[in-house]
Amino acid sequence: MSSAKPVKTNPVSLIDDAFLENILESSESELLTDLMEEGLSPESVLSGLRALVSAAENECAQARLGKAKEELAAFRGTPGVGHIDDLQQRRERLAAMRVGSPSATGMMMAARKGEGLSERDQDGLLDDLADLDRLSARKDEGDL
User: How far is 45 from 42, CA to CA, in rounded Å?
Assistant: First the structure.
């Protein structure tokens, strides 16, 4: 069931709607004639419209990116979920994963070309473990 369109009472909105309706109901040849009468080239009008659409797409993408960053910051700022929030415990869990310990069931490390992890790689993995545990806790609570 669709809802009825709200009735516009603002005169500017009514004028805008009339202009848009006129443009949408016009044929291509009528639009070309109107543009030429105004001294505009169709190519320049299309170029301007493409620029407007591109700017709107970029603005929407920036808004989505900003929202995603806020959500990630909120997620990462979530208080600890118990046994794995402590950095030392995460380090021990990572060490167990690296040697294939049974205490790290269900976890595995990807093969690497080099011998060991760099400090940056290790820090990244520790952050990833904390994120995984937060996600698991949210799943257990029914948030996901």
Answer: 5
